[in-house]
Amino acid sequence: MNSKTKVIIAGGGIGGTAAALSLLNRGFDVEVYEQAPELGEVGAGVQISPNGNRALDHLGVFNDLARLSSDADDKVIRLWDAGTTWEMFDLGTEALHRYGYPYLTVYRPDLLQVLIDAVRRKKPDAIHLDKKCVGFTQDAESVTLNFADGSSASGDILIGADGVHSVIRNGLFGSEPAKFSGMLAWRGVIPLDRLPEEMSRPRATVWVGPNGHVVHYPLRGGKLMNVVATAERDDWQVESWTTEGSKEEFRNDFAGWHPDVQKLIEAAPSQFKWALMVRPPLQTWAEGRVALLGDACHPTLPLLAQGAVMAVEDSVILGRCLEQYADDPVKALSQYEKTRSPIANRKVQGANDNIRRFHNAAFKTSETAKQFIDSEWSREAIIARYDWIFRDDVTTTEI
Description:
By secondary structure, the protein is α/β, with parallel strands linked by helices. The protein has one domain: FAD/NAD(P)-binding domain. It is built from 13 helices and 19 strands. The protein is globular.
């Protein structure tokens, strides 16, 4: 494979643009097809752990993104009703020393824009908008992607980076319905000047409760506060990031929570809700000249802060595999799956396991909460859960 080898990518989100950049950096010809009429991400925060920043540095965009990120002074756990506060051991503060890269909190649109800009520097016309994928065909020599407007695009390889509702995944393996997790998440981004002074400091906070949790942390150098609030409910099962709920509904889900949580709810200019769904891990990510990437093959609950990171890491391994197995694209995609699937599935399971650490009956009283936090949120417990993740290096992983 060389610059004449064409890779077509379905999806122009974080995963699709990261994959495009990884491949363009290696001399492949790349075309990205995005169904939206314009590029953009939802206004929300994303956490980029050291392993993710290592991968972004490999792609050449880490420094640009770091300039747009935020650092929290500290991290605390607070009890849902009493507001009891425990200083939380923060592996992120030691990140640069232990892992060589920091732990950053980033505005999702900033991450996408940094990737888009880097792709366009390599190939100005690589990204095509308003191209809704409806299916594909492949043979021994090529792949053709078909669009809703009747047009099509052909290439040597197709990467499905088209998210949790992936058309490419359904075309490869059929449609399997997701299972509702029993949780609904609210998200909002709040300008810091809308919060009381005592709540506007650059601190990352995790509120824990018997049937819900709230996470908030600074973005954009402390100009914004990202809020994600998760409640256990069974009457809303729409998996969409763009459905806006009412302030009243948001309040009802967190009735009885501490006044500081109520202040966050009231300060949010808008509040979007989405049902958290779970899917069984895919056993196969690739077939022939077609492979999946990111949420299309390993969607995860947002409880380990690795969703966006995994898509970026997939992109690095994909590029390395296609470069290493240059004469055999089918083998290259198979090795990509073989290399990434075990660790992605382990992270998805880790996110599932974290449900009980954020939602637990022990949080009904301060005494039982302290015992639980001493056990599950101690230095030793946090290192055991996250150290292997932060040390993972997709730039040197054996493929």
